[in-house]
């Protein structure tokens, strides 16, 4: 096995939203989470920014426009650095 640096580029294949966030993230409200296929092949599931998720109708409409290109970034959430993706 070898380490390979990932580009952070990928495609958002589908997404949904949280109903109730974990207690640690309660100040965030609803958050979109999605399945990303990275350019290098692996699948990644994490938070997606800039995707409508305040209602089931918004999520359904957003998913009808997929796949779209996304880019990874590091974001501080609840005192932790996490990988999130946003539209390119």
Structure overview:
This protein has one helix at residues 56-63; strands spanning 9-17, 32-38, 43-48, 68-77, 80-87. The chain has a 5-stranded antiparallel β-sheet with strand order 3-2-1-4-5, with helices on one face. The chain has a single domain (9-87), classed as Beta Barrel (OB fold (Dihydrolipoamide Acetyltransferase, E2P)). It is mainly β. The chain is flat. The protein has 1 helix and 5 strands.
Layout of helices and strands:
Elements: E1 9-17, E2 32-38, E3 43-48, H1 56-63, E4 68-77, E5 80-87
Antiparallel strand pairs: 1-2, 1-4, 2-3, 4-5
Characteristic terms for this protein:
88 residues; OB fold (Dihydrolipoamide Acetyltransferase, E2P); mainly beta; flat
Q: What structural class do you assign from the helix and strand content?
A: mainly beta
Fraction of residues in H or I helices: under 10%
**Secondary structure tally, helices:** 1
CATH topology: OB fold (Dihydrolipoamide Acetyltransferase, E2P)
CATH architecture level-2 label? Beta Barrel
Strand order of the largest sheet: 3-2-1-4-5
Report the average pLDDT across residues. Answer: 92
Secondary-structure element pattern, one letter each: EEEHEE
Task: Please give the radius of gyration in angstroms.
Answer: 13 Å
Which stretches are low in confidence, meaning pLDDT under 50 for 5 or more residues running? none
Anisotropy-based shape: flat
Count of structural domains: 1
Strand content: over 45%
Reported for the largest beta sheet, the result is: 5 strands, antiparallel
Name of the level-1 CATH class: Mainly Beta
Distance between the termini: 31 Å
Write down how many β-strands occur, each being a DSSP E stretch of 2 or more residues.
5
Organism: marine sediment metagenome
Protein name: DUF35 domain-containing protein
């Amino acid at each position: 096995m070898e380490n390979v640096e990932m580009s952070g580029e990928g495609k958002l294949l589908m997404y949904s939203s949280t109903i109730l966030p974990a207690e640690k993230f309660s100040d965030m409200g609803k958050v979109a989470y999605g399945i990303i296929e990275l350019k290098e092949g692996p699948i990644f599931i994490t938070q997606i920014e800039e995707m409508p998720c305040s209602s089931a109708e918004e999520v359904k409409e957003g998913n009808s426009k997929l796949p779209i290109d996304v880019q990874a970034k590091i974001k501080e959430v609840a005192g932790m650095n996490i990988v999130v993706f946003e539209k390119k």
